[in-house]
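pipeline/complex-builder :: batch 7 item 3
reading input block
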Amino acid sequence: MPEPVADRRYEPVIGLEIHVQLATRTKMFCGCELSFGEEPNTRTCPVCLGHPGVLPVVNAEAVHYALMIGLALGCDIAPRSLFHRKNYFYPDLPKGYQISQYDVPLARDGILGGVRIHRVHLEEDAAKLVHAGASGRIHGAAGSSVDFNRGGTPLVEIVSEPDIRSAADAGEWLRLLRATLKRLGVSDVNMDEGSLRCDANVSIRPAGEATLGTKAELKNMNSFRFLQRGIEAEIARQEEIVRGGGAVLQETLHFDPVSGGLSSLRSKEEAHDYRYFPEPDLVPLAPTEAMLDRARAALPELPAARAERLEHDLGIAPDTARLLAFRSELGDYFEAALAATDGGAPDARTLASWVTVELVPRLGDADPADSRVSPGALAKLAEMVAGRAVSQSAAKQVLDVMAAEGGEPDRLVEERGLARTESDELGAIVDRAIDQNAAAVEQVRSGNEKAIGAIVGAVMRATEGRADGGEVQRMVRERT
Amino acid sequence: MAPTSGDVSELTAAAAIDRVGAGEVSPAELFELYRDRAASERLGAFLLVSDNAPAIPAEAPLGGVPLAVKDVFCVADVPSTAASRILEGYRPPYTATAVERLAAAGAPMLGKTNMDEFAMGSSSENSAYGPVLNPWDEKRVPGGSSGGSAAAVAAGLAPWAIGTDTGGSIRQPAALCGVVGLKPTYGSVSRYGMIAFASSLDQCGPLTRDVTDAALLFRHLVGRDHRDSTSLEYPQPLEAPTAERLDGLRFGVPPELTGEGIERGVLDVFECVVATIEELGGGVEEVSLPHSAHGLSAYYVLAPAEASANLARFDGVRYGMRSGDGDLLSLYEETRAEGFGDEVKRRIMLGTYALSSGYYEAYYGRAQRVRTKIVEDFTDAFERVDLVLAPTSPTVAFELGERTADPLSMYLSDYCTVPMSLAGIPAISIPGGLSAGLPVGIQLAGPAFSEPRILDAALALERALAFDGGPARA
């Protein structure tokens, strides 16, 4: 007997489509430089304005970047991929068609972080429409202007297989992809500015079933938070429909970041017929062995592999390893610091936490490479702590100074008298504290461990924090 | 004795270059002579005549001999309309490579010639700016779409001209006007700046008074252009043709292009040409192009399909005509409804339909397979013969209005020229003789990049046929 609909468990099935603006010098099919907030329509030419008689010419650097992406995602590179024309009328599309890849994309069948990659292809970005009027959208606008600066910017579209099973996983996977693209240096991957854009295909099915449900396509989620909220909202919407005995319709939905809600852009019946056909103005894209070699040689160690190495080869905790790997500037900083320790103390795990736990909050938004704390200086400080030359708490004070003003840790420790108190000197202070806290000593002796705090506190006060808390505790325990 | 201006206008361009070289006439005088003729013509051949001759460097190989340019080429700051209402007032911000190269070689633009709107037509009646008349008989069409260029050369309004050929648009008007027209190998001449009709077929080429002039213009047109990804470096150096005999050359006559549907008078001239070839030492044999009968059908799917996309940019947003009430949909609809002529609309609709979801395979996909078959037909033929010989047009020039009501009869005008276009191979049309007082064009086609062979054979034939003539010069 089938279980009641209301009790059935549903499993979300999610695939992502990501558009990445490539950080090439010039546009996809003409020589115009890419735009970074220049005056509207100043980065244009007859080609990207779609004048009569012009012809597209493929940007070699864009192809190189796309090959790097394909290879980094473990894809098969097509020996000959084709450009097609995707036809539709819109004012942001000067030719009346977008040149894109269709049935034979540049790369396919890859994998990243356990999610399979369906395809990777090259295309051109549309121009930017600015609508005057309250709605900010074309309907009801008093007038619209087109800025063609963005038109023709090279885009790579990456389509995943529907291998993702939750909104959180979708966000996590997009972070990995973003880190990977950033590491490749092929894009600014800035979601606010639109150099990384993500659409999601979402469906649900009864848990355990293999067939896919009807999907909805979610657009306009321009942050990780919106992506997660959008998918969560859509899963909830679909579950409600299905539990109510209804059927999910295939449609495209627009995510509204203000309300957090989804509104329908168009149904399946209203879907465009793009009338794709091969672009006769371009020849097939056939990467030579030299082009592939160059793309392979340009691949750095990628975040997924780096996280794996940091965790397994260096014994760094998984979360810390991922943080260092996904923010490659942190990873680079950490590895530079590690190299400066010359294989000695501290161990990698400790040093990693100095970077992620102590340094990061002191950086704010700054890139660690630009900070006043050099990797060598941080390594030296961590080494001093490990060598018991300075206490953990004193070292943090030193790091505050280093982050604000720069400087060498050993010198700062000396200047500020923060060197760890010598043990015999400390012993005398501990003995004095024990003498002066007889009541606490009595309690400790009778098994109240917490009472040790009073004695330790007295020692710390007497040493003005220079003593190592752990060390003091050990000494107090020995002597009581 | 110094030549009078009347003498000079009777000269071929090559002969005019010699006169310029000898100091007997200056480029400026030559330009003025033709400018005055073009400005006062009454054939409707010119849409625009240039004001001033640019300075021509003395060493320029084309000697300053002015060139008529089909209005499908963009020229910076010069109205360029493709004979369409929708581009009225449009002045391109750049110049087409072909025009730029010829101007640099010393052939300045004399003016822009009339044509079928967006090169869609075979009679030059589809111009938004009125038809072109055939100088041989002004009640007849000059052919199309490069009818203005052909008529201008035939009537002596221009020493030479360039046009574009998609399915026969250089060769057929050349035939109907009794001049020489060469459609080069696809990719040998840059398409940059040619307002596109069907990108996989469009090719620029010369329309001239004789074969030598065609070879000369062609030599200065070819070459890889980094702005056209489909252009190629011509694989061999190009010399002026010199042949007087055809010894050892094998000519193939396809029965498919010389049978039913070809006018008797055209076939009579064709047979005379075959006899002349044999007299000159050439061998003539039958060679079949079995799929060429389907060429026209495939062409009228593929060309409109590409055109439907190529013409989507004419939306009233950025340049050219603009109409509508301010709403986006009305801007698109009104601009295109008022801006395009009937034939253009017909082809946009045909092409849009052929590419539509559910029909793509049945139309576009199938037409592509026919195209492949036609390529194979020619490949097979050229294993047996050096050149294919056929009439250029099934008929001589027809009367104005005769075929405008029946698009299919108009489309049949391209029956003999479309197969070579689909195969991307070069073909020339030269005057072969007269039928009922009107010129008949003979077409020679060869494998890709065989222009030197084609031009040599055409020159030998031209000398032997001694076609003289022409209509009274305007």
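note: Confidence is low (pLDDT under 50) at residues 1-5 of chain B.
queue -> next item
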